[in-house]
């Protein structure tokens, strides 16, 4: 799909490199599992089936998990009006529009393709932002759809889950299968499970770091593309400041249900006092994002 969103060659290159590296890691992973223990092949096949299911139904799964509903232009005229204007400006197909009835101020895009894309915002976000700020957030999310990084993140994230599940399976096998290791066969089986656990944990760690690095860059790319499309970087900066500040004030226990969506959210659902290293975070720091938007505002000659 072509649109007026400026092509981001760095983002495309990073997505290709991440996908290629993850592919290499998982080919080696599956080969190691087959060599170590034949029964794990069944686990891999089941996980592969789940991956296909998530890829095919990613939009429905995300909406269900966030308890969101597709809304019509009659139900949400303001929201649809903004999306209509942005899609016309970007010359791209209009995605479906959904609303999640939650006080958490956020937004995300999902879907396996541009034809199946869904743009979802929360009622908490719509209450807090004015029209220009909301336009900036929606332009940010539309850029994810246009650049197709939503699909890459969906698949890449699930591949990491596969390794995590197998690592957990191996861990519980060592814990609950420790009844009788006195014989040679028992000791060999125990060592085999430990080896599977070590390989799975290593693959999960590598996947985790690769996905986090891609996730941080794609958020900066979406900020840049969205701000250029609207021509108002300051509005997006204002939205970021509001949303980040309001999320920090929400009790941590209320944010836990949304943690699984952090890699896809406009702003991560992290409470005040939560500290993450740059290697572990799904998003660049708020200051990095604001600094980039300030530079864009100057380049575009935006009047404050």
TrEMBL record:
<dbReference type="GO" id="GO:0008237">
    <property type="term" value="F:metallopeptidase activity"/>
</dbReference>
<keyword id="KW-0482">Metalloprotease</keyword>
<feature type="transmembrane region" description="Helical">
    <location>
        <begin position="40"/>
        <end position="57"/>
    </location>
</feature>
<keyword id="KW-0479">Metal-binding</keyword>
<keyword id="KW-0378">Hydrolase</keyword>
<keyword id="KW-0645">Protease</keyword>
<keyword id="KW-0812">Transmembrane</keyword>
<keyword id="KW-1003">Cell membrane</keyword>
<feature type="binding site">
    <location>
        <position position="219"/>
    </location>
    <ligand>
        <name>Zn(2+)</name>
    </ligand>
</feature>
<dbReference type="InterPro" id="IPR001915">
    <property type="entry name" value="Peptidase_M48"/>
</dbReference>
<feature type="domain" description="Peptidase M48">
    <location>
        <begin position="74"/>
        <end position="294"/>
    </location>
</feature>
<dbReference type="Pfam" id="PF01435">
    <property type="entry name" value="Peptidase_M48"/>
</dbReference>
<dbReference type="InterPro" id="IPR050083">
    <property type="entry name" value="HtpX_protease"/>
</dbReference>
<protein>
    <recommendedName>
        <fullName>Protease HtpX homolog</fullName>
        <ecNumber>3.4.24.-</ecNumber>
    </recommendedName>
</protein>
<dbReference type="InterPro" id="IPR022919">
    <property type="entry name" value="Pept_M48_protease_HtpX"/>
</dbReference>
<comment type="similarity">
    <text>Belongs to the peptidase M48B family.</text>
</comment>
<feature type="binding site">
    <location>
        <position position="144"/>
    </location>
    <ligand>
        <name>Zn(2+)</name>
    </ligand>
</feature>
<feature type="active site">
    <location>
        <position position="141"/>
    </location>
</feature>
<keyword id="KW-1133">Transmembrane helix</keyword>
<feature type="transmembrane region" description="Helical">
    <location>
        <begin position="12"/>
        <end position="34"/>
    </location>
</feature>
<keyword id="KW-0472">Membrane</keyword>
<feature type="transmembrane region" description="Helical">
    <location>
        <begin position="150"/>
        <end position="171"/>
    </location>
</feature>
<feature type="binding site">
    <location>
        <position position="140"/>
    </location>
    <ligand>
        <name>Zn(2+)</name>
    </ligand>
</feature>
<feature type="transmembrane region" description="Helical">
    <location>
        <begin position="191"/>
        <end position="211"/>
    </location>
</feature>
<keyword id="KW-0862">Zinc</keyword>
């Amino acid at each position: 799909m072509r649109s007026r969103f400026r092509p981001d060659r760095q983002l495309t290159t990073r997505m290709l490199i991440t996908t290629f590296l993850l592919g290499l890691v998982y080919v080696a992973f599956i080969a190691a599992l087959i060599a170590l223990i034949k029964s794990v092949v069944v686990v891999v096949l089941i996980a592969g089936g789940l991956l296909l299911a998530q890829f095919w139904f990613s939009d429905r799964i995300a909406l269900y998990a966030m308890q969101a509903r597709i809304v019509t232009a009659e139900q949400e005229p303001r929201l649809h009006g903004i999306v209509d204007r942005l899609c016309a400006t970007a010359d791209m197909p209009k995605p479906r529009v959904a609303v999640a009835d939650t006080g958490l101020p956020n937004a995300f895009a999902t879907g396996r393709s541009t034809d199946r894309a869904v743009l979802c915002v929360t009622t908490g976000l719509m209450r807090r932002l004015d029209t220009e700020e909301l336009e900036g957030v929606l332009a940010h999310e539309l850029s994810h759809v246009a650049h197709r990084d939503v699909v890459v993140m969906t698949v890449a994230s699930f591949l990491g889950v596969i390794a995590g599940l197998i690592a957990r399976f191996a861990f519980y096998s060592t814990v609950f299968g420790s009844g009788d290791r006195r014989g040679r066969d028992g000791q060999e089986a125990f060592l085999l499970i430990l080896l599977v656990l070590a390989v799975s944990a290593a693959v999960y760690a590598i996947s985790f770091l690769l996905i986090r690095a891609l996730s941080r860059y794609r958020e900066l790319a979406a900020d840049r593309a969205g701000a250029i499309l609207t021509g108002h970087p300051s509005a997006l900066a204002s939205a970021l400041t509001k949303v980040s500040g309001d999320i920090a004030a929400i009790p941590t226990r209320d944010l836990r249900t949304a943690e699984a969506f952090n890699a896809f959210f406009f702003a991560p659902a992290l409470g005040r006092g939560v500290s993450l290293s740059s290697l572990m975070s799904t998003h660049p720091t708020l200051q990095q994002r604001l600094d980039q938007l300030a530079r864009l505002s100057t380049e575009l000659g935006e009047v404050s």
